[in-house]
Structure to design on (144 residues):
C-alpha cells in the first residue's frame, strides 16, 4: 500500500505525460493550420504581408495550454485598420459572411467594399475535428 506522497507523485507523472501529449498534438496541428491558412485564400497578394501574418502557436501559462490561431495585427494594420480581418470577413454589410466580426469599414464609391474570404474560418473548421480526435486518442493511450 502506497502513501499519500506516492499517490501525488503518480498524479504529477500522469499530468506531465498528458501535458506532453497535448503539446505534441497542438504543435503538430499549429504548423499545419498556419500553412493551410496561408495557402487557402481567394485574395491576390502583391506584398505577401497578409499571407505571412497568419500565425498559429502553442501558449502555456500556469494552468492551461492554448492553441492560438490569429492574424498578426502588427504586419497588416494600415491607418488603424487590421485589413487581415477585413479581408477575412468582408467590409460591407452585404459582403460580411465571416465569423470573426471585423468592423464595417468606410469605402469609396469605386471599390464598394471587400468580399469575404473566411480563410481563417475554413482552416479552423478543417482542423478542429482532427485536433479533438487526436486529443481523445492521446488521453485514451495515457489511461492504459
Amino acid at each position: 500500500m502506497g502513501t499519500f506522497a506516492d499517490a501525488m507523485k503518480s498524479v504529477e507523472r500522469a499530468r506531465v505525460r498528458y501535458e506532453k501529449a497535448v503539446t505534441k498534438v497542438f504543435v503538430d496541428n499549429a504548423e499545419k493550420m498556419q500553412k493551410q491558412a496561408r495557402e487557402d485564400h481567394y485574395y491576390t497578394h502583391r506584398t505577401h504581408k497578409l499571407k505571412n501574418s497568419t500565425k498559429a502557436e502553442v501558449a502555456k501559462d500556469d494552468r492551461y495550454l492554448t492553441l492560438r490561431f490569429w492574424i498578426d495585427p502588427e504586419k497588416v494594420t494600415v491607418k488603424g485598420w487590421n485589413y487581415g480581418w477585413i479581408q477575412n470577413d468582408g467590409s460591407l454589410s452585404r459582403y460580411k459572411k465571416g465569423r470573426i466580426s471585423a468592423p464595417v469599414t468606410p469605402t469609396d464609391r469605386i471599390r464598394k467594399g471587400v468580399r469575404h474570404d473566411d480563410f481563417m474560418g475554413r482552416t479552423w473548421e478543417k482542423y478542429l475535428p482532427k485536433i479533438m480526435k487526436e486529443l481523445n486518442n492521446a488521453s485514451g493511450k495515457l489511461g492504459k
Remarks:
- Helices lie at 4-39, 49-53, 73-76, 83-89, 119-142.
